[in-house]
Amino acid sequence: MKFNGLPVKDATKNLEIEIEKVDAVGSRKKDPHNCAAARAIKREYKCKDVAVFSSKTYVLENDHYVRYITPESITREIVAFDRGSEFEPGSYKLRKPGPTEKLGSPRTPSNKKKGSGVRNRIHVTANIRNWKVSSK
């Protein structure tokens, strides 16, 4: 997998961050590279580029990106922030992918019988940043 033209590797350890009020100053809505969480990671870990999405976070390290699982607490803040509210300061932990979340892990087949005619409805949260569009 590649992100912004560079290879992606799974994180091997969790990443703890402290989002402060200063991180919200200058942050931009619907911009995964410049939200308060991305700015906090850049500030604390001296990273050149970070992209925070509702399910994954990508942190640039040298010649590749490291992929973390975005916690639900940050996902809720992203939704609120992208829709016009403030990004609340606090302590957050981005975790390394679990065994079934790692890049290249096999996907388990569904238990549904083929031809049952029942489709799962998928809800997509509207009016927030799009993981397919990069500002770079």
What is the mean predicted local confidence, pLDDT?
A: 88
- Numbering strands along the chain, what is their spatial order in the largest sheet? 1-2-6-5-4
Strand content: 15-25%
Distance between the termini: 17 Å
- The computed structural class is alpha+beta
Say how many strands there are. Answer: 7
* Spatial shape: globular
List SSEs in N-to-C order.
Answer: EEEHHEEEHE
**What can be said about the biggest beta sheet?**
5 strands, mixed
Helix content: 10-25%
Number of helices: 3
**Low-pLDDT sequence parts:** none
Quaternary organization: single chain
Radius of gyration: 16 Å
Explain what the structure shows.
The protein contains 3 helices and 7 strands, in the order βββααβββαβ. By secondary structure, the chain is an alpha+beta fold. The protein has a domain of 93 residues. Strand 1 and strand 2 form a beta hairpin.
Features:
alpha+beta; globular; 136 residues; 3 helices; two-stranded antiparallel ribbon
List the helices and strands and how they pair.
Elements: E1 2-3, E2 6-10, E3 15-19, H1 21-24, H2 36-45, E4 50-52, E5 56-61, E6 64-69, H3 72-82, E7 90-94
Parallel strand pairs: 2-6
Antiparallel strand pairs: 1-2, 3-7, 4-5, 5-6
Structure, briefly:
This protein has 136 residues and is α+β, with helices and mostly antiparallel strands. It has a domain at 2-94.
